[in-house]
Amino acid sequence: MNNTASSVPCYALEAVTKTYGGRRVLDIAGLEVRPGEVLALVGPSGSGKSTLLRLLNFLEPPTSGRIRFMDGDYGPDQPVPLAVRRRVTTVAQRPILLNRSVWANIRFGLGLRGERDGDGRVDAALAQVGLAALARQPARTLSGGEAQRVALARAMVIEPDVLLLDEPTANLDPYNVGVIEDTVRTLNRDRGMTAMLVTHNVFQARRLAHRVALILEGRLVEVADVHVFFEAPRDPRTAAFVRGEMVY
Amino acid sequence: MEKSINTFWQGLVEAIRLIGNGDSGLVEIVVLSLRVSGLALLLSTLIGVPLGAALGLGRFIGRKLVIALMYTGMGFPPVVVGLFVYLLLSRSGPLGSLDSPLVPPLFTPGAMVIAQCIIAFPLVAGFTMAAVMGVDPQLRQQVQSLGATAWQTTLTVLAEARIGVMVAIIAGFGGIISEVGAVMLVGGNIEGRTRVLTTAIVLETRQGNFELAMALGLILLGIAFFINVIMLRLQGKTFDS
Ligand SMILES: Nc1ncnc2c1ncn2[C@@H]1O[C@H](COP(=O)(O)OP(=O)(O)O)[C@@H](O)[C@H]1O
Ligand SMILES: [Mg+2]
After folding, report:
1. Total number of domains in chain A
2. Phi, psi at residue A143, to the nearest 5°?
3. Which chain A positions have a beta carbon within 8 Å of B132's beta carbon?
């Protein structure tokens, strides 16, 4: 596990809120994401996890508050430069592939960036997720697990500084879960890629995360090192969550 | 009764002979039809595809109104379009009186292109809008997340909807190649200048030249059939996927 405690934070959120139609769905007083860490985000459905990831990917601005990322500081009205937004990407629960070949899907992000010679990276990403044999196949013919592995490979070829994973292994069989977890672990260890992982799977959080955050109704309850979170949580609600007593 | 049946079969035989010989009058008419409708379709595509994409993907003030106008345009009687274009382009009309080199005079292929473009572009826009609205809305966010600009996102959605967009363009072509009222009005069916398949059929039938009319009709049928085959194959592709 990396010792990242002393570094400048990768993200620092201050009083970030998000409101939809007058309803506040996110209210984060403060959150730091450390460079090179895997931070798991757990919490019931509807608690605002995906919304938080959309803000961190700069797909939507916060309603109020500040998001510091790398050298920038972004609020409700600061447009985030394209080059900054391109340092982050998301793998969603449902792999949304383009109606093209597997290879073209993985190449996609490089095309957006006008990169001409990324073919080697595409092949390496395909090999990493164990799909080299399916490169020429139309993406829509893949199984759910294969499609999610393509989505992960598509995210890794653009070599983001931050990878956001929104329940990436929900509904997948153990083999595919294993490939995806191995890939995330490798990216984090070997390339120092920071990752934020939304998961309902407590075991997955234990396997992958350095720290874990619990979110309830849009607010962070506790953010702690993985061992503290699971073995000696401070907040009784975290304890209830860890014991599996939280009904949702 | 007896006679008309004979006329029919004689006409058919003669028509096939004319087509087989590549009759020069016939070729001229076919070429002009394809040129006028082809150019009108090109312009309709350049207007209709971006418009359809904007209506399907964008959220802006007046969108509902533009959609309502577009639907009206899709079902507008072509002959009325012809009437409007006629009035606009006539010497005393608002455009015709400008005497601008950009405004084609009445009874020219240019005037026919304008009329056909007005008929076809709402069709292209409407089908394009439906096609892009059929693309998974979450795809846009995923594509943005991978680093796409707004422009790249739109192009990617259009590429995803490519089969529907092709159907839109072909539907536009089908709407104008077989149209007669508007081109008759604004083109005037002048031999060697503005005579196209449909207007020629009207004229030759009236004059009793059934062989030629039939030959023209067969060619038009062939084009229409070809268009429908392509449409069906493309739509089959969408349904397979
Ligand atoms: N675009 C949106 N418009 C309106 N409400 C939204 C939107 N996105 C999310 N919400 C609402 O915000 C809340 C949090 O949603 P979400 O972030 O998806 O939760 P989670 O990912 O934790 O399940 C939910 O109540 C959801 O209905
Ligand atoms: Mg979610």
Report:
1. 1
2. -75, 170
3. none
